[in-house]
Structure formats: structure tokens, C-alpha cells
Amino acid sequence: MTSDSTDPAGQTVLTTFECAPAACDDLLAAVTDAYEHVIAKQPGFLGAALHVNDARTRVASYATWRRREDFQAMLRTEEMQGRNREISELARGFEPVMYDVVARF
Hints:
By secondary structure, the chain is an alpha+beta fold. The chain is built from three helices and four strands; from the N terminus they run E-H-E-E-H-H-E.
């Protein structure tokens, strides 16, 4: 994601999901549904993209948030906690990692 902004404020969350190739479509559907119906409607959400590797064994999510606290508040919602339980059943594992934006090009 690029921007002409020189303001480095923001929070980026990269989440990688590991899955069996046979579960990839179901995992993508669950994550897409979570973004469309819950995550994208949360305060501070700026945007996201989903990526899949060629082997269909990894899904990556790149999301941007106004502040770290906005992302953490979304995770604490009852709706998202339930969806994360569903997603964890489709994935062998997943890990969201928060990164601070230090430069944009």
C-alpha cells in the first residue's frame, strides 16, 4: 500500500494464516466475511488486502488502522472473538503482528 503522505502515524497489522490447500477457499471466505461485516466497520479501520500463495497453504492479510488501540478494540468485540474461533478451526494457525508505520513511499 503506498501513499503520498509524509505523516508516518498509523498501525499496520500483518496476519499470516497457515492452512491445508483444501481449506484455503473456506478460510478465505471466513476472513473476507469478517472484513466485510465486522472489521471494516470498526472505528479506526483504514483498509486491508488479502493475499494467497501459489500453493494455497498461506493466506496473508495486510490491514491498516489509524491507531494500535483501534485494532485492539476490534479484537475484543464479542463478534470478532467468535469469528476468530471459527477461523482458527480452518487454519493450522494464524498470527497477527502489529507494525508501526515509519515511512511511506
